[in-house]
């Protein structure tokens, strides 16, 4: 059965490499499942998109009769029972999956959205004062210090590489892109280790190719 | 086998009624499973606590050999296969569980932590300027409007009452406490419906009794 992954039709440069269809592409490459890509308009959002995804976010998948959104839920759905989410380690993997997408991402996005407000205020709103950002940064660093200590010398969070690592690394890549992961060298090495995997490289290449194709199509339309 | 739920030994008034052991107590009451409560010191945090929970948060559970943190993972672990997370609706329940704990909670906590900074700056840092808060509020309201539309006339998010409703209602209760849910009357009714359940009432009563007992013990110690 063909699996369809929805992402946006086009986006500006700044979110490319970080749009959440990448998390799902990565998981699909890891488990060796093929898929096709479909798009929804990024701007303006469509009623069809809202029917698929009430928050007009991506990704969404369609797998036969099953339509599903939220990258965390999609990863669980696709990978349950595979080596990325085997039954005998599932509780620990869930634990780290929620740690990534709740505990760590809440702190990371609280700070990152303040930083991005300086660059893209039309999207992220007016930038907060320096002391507000500094507090958010300190809160994030407390979480990252704790995470680094919990990871210790382990290669991955919960035994072998799992969906929890996909989620956590995708959250940490945002920190790394803001050059704020250097203070946590074990986490930087963890991200490096994960993003060296062939499945990540393939997923990222396909993700970036999608935007390049979208650019080319847009250029064709504007000159056509 | 006795299940142990860890929460803090004592907390000031403001977070009571919202500490995340409540989410787990609620789930346990719904499935009719008994448990005992153990505590970790809220301040200063202990090395024993960090061994149980790397971010020194609560809740943590111990169930025989299984120690587990992250309230989302604990709810899945405890409720898998029960009417709160039955196999035949699990993908949809996972979807709404992550919608609650990632999409909605990220926006809610981004705004609420700015509001709480006015009241408890020693914990939440310096309060941001009014325009920064207004942008965070608008972002949250966009999510809540979309959620209300997705809920529509349904009683619960994914068929019968599920762990996704526990998570979503616990996130929305924070908004309601800041009197910001009135603009979304269907969500306010949803919270009212959920918190009228006997399992919620029992969980909340036990949660509040825990702090009252802690107050009494602290008073005893200080006069003893």
Automatic annotation (TrEMBL), chains A, B:
This protein's record includes keyword GTP-binding: no
UniProt domain GST N-terminal: residue ranges: 1-86
Residue span(s) of domain GST C-terminal: 86-222
PROSITE patterns, alphabetized: GST_CTER, GST_NTER
Entry superkingdom: Bacteria
Keyword field contains Ribonucleoprotein: no
Pfam families documented for this protein: GST_C, GST_N
Keyword terms of this UniProt record: Plasmid
InterPro entries, per database record: Glutathione-S-Trfase_C-like, Glutathione-S-Trfase_C_sf, Glutathione_S-Trfase, Glutathione_S-Trfase_N, GST_C, Thioredoxin-like_sf
Family according to the record: Belongs to the GST superfamily.
PANTHER family in alphabetical order: GLUTATHIONE S-TRANSFERASE GSTA, GLUTATHIONE S-TRANSFERASE-RELATED
The name this protein goes by in its record: Glutathione S-transferase
Organism: Roseibium algicola
């Amino acid at each position: 059965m063909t699996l369809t992954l929805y992402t946006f039709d086009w986006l500006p440069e700044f979110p490319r490499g970080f749009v959440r269809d990448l998390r799902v592409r990565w998981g699909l490459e890891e488990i060796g499942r093929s898929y096709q890509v479909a798009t929804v308009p990024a701007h303006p959002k469509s009623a069809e998109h809202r029917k698929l995804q009430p928050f007009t976010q991506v990704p969404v998948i369609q797998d036969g009769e099953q339509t599903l959104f939220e990258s965390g839920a999609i990863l669980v759905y696709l990978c349950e029972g595979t080596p990325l989410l085997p039954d005998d380690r599932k509780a620990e993997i869930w634990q780290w999956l929620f740690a990534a997408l709740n505990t760590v991402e809440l702190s990371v996005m609280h700070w990152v959205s303040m930083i991005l407000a300086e660059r893209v205020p039309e999207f992220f709103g007016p930038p907060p004062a320096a002391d507000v950002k500094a507090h958010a940064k300190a809160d994030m660093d407390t979480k990252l210090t704790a995470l680094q200590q919990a990871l210790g010398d382990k290669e991955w969070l919960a035994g072998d590489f799992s969906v929890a690592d996909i989620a956590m690394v995708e959250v940490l890549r945002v920190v790394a892109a803001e050059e704020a992961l250097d203070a946590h060298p074990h986490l930087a090495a963890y991200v490096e280790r994960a993003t060296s995997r062939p499945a990540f490289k393939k997923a990222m290449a396909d993700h970036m190719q999608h935007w390049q194709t979208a650019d080319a199509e847009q250029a064709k339309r504007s000159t056509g």
